[in-house]
């Protein structure tokens, strides 16, 4: 006698066996927070879960089957994601990182030789305001550069020293993996416009911009191409 098959080709006996026994995962929440949900495409609350698999008979757990990898569950869509989803910054955090990056680059380029130039300060202030520091003033930037020089022991116009290079990398390294190439190039070009506001690049400005490019993982050839392109009137 042939077994009765359903539309999916599985036998009634197989379907019945699955109802009698199977594997169930019991999830336990071990943390929560806010993350950028890949499914929702925005910031959402999440729970971090750990799970244990058990073999069940008639829905009753009878034998352990091991543990599951830690999982992140979105509170909105209930989607499950690997914990690497938490590495992506939230929209709020990303905006803050971008704002801080533009501010740090502006200070670095000004410290390389632009604080005495009103044009450079105006260009830097406009870029920093556009990035999110809406109350930024030229006087504030000039005062910050002076404080930076006192703290690092360098003078305006000197090459990018270790302390300033570290600050650039601290601001740009975490941001670079989350920016597409045009976004990374835009930050470098903003710095280039500040440097060019009062004339051709000085050696110190080129050094600072090269450090910016390296922190943004832009190759040396592309940094040179972008700096040359910035000098060409649009």
From TrEMBL:
Q: In this protein, which residues make up the domain named Co-chaperone DjlA N-terminal?
A: 101-225
What sections of the protein cross the membrane? none
Checking InterPro entries in the record gives: DjlA_N, TerB-like
Top-rank taxon of the source lineage equals: Bacteria
List the Gene3D superfamilies hit by this protein, alphabetically.
Answer: TerB-like
Q: State what protein this is by name.
A: TerB family tellurite resistance protein
Name the species this protein comes from: Streptomyces althioticus subsp. attaecolombicae
Q: What is the lineage of its organism?
A: Bacteria, Bacillati, Actinomycetota, Actinomycetes, Kitasatosporales
């Amino acid at each position: 006698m042939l077994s009765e098959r359903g539309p999916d080709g599985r036998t009634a006996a197989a379907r019945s066996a699955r109802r009698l026994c199977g594997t169930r995962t019991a999830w336990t929440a071990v943390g929560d927070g806010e993350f950028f949900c890949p499914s929702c495409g925005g910031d959402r609350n999440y729970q971090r879960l750990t799970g244990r698999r058990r073999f069940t008979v008639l829905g009753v757990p009878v034998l352990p089957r091991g543990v599951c990898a830690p999982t992140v569950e979105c509170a909105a869509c209930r989607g499950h994601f690997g914990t690497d989803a938490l590495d992506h910054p939230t929209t709020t955090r990303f905006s803050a990182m971008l704002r801080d990056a533009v501010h740090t680059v502006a200070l670095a380029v000004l410290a390389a030789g632009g604080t005495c130039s009103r044009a450079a300060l105006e260009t830097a202030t406009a870029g920093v305001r556009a990035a999110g520091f809406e109350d930024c003033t030229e006087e504030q930037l000039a005062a910050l550069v002076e404080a930076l020089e006192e703290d690092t022991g360098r003078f305006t116009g000197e090459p990018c020293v270790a302390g300033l290079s570290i600050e650039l990398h601290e601001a740009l390294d975490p941001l670079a993996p989350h920016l597409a190439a045009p976004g990374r190039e835009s930050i470098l070009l903003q710095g280039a416009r500040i440097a060019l506001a009062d004339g051709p690049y000085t050696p110190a400005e080129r050094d600072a911009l090269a450090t910016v490019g390296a922190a943004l993982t832009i190759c040396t050839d592309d940094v040179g191409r972008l700096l040359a392109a910035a000098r060409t009137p649009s």
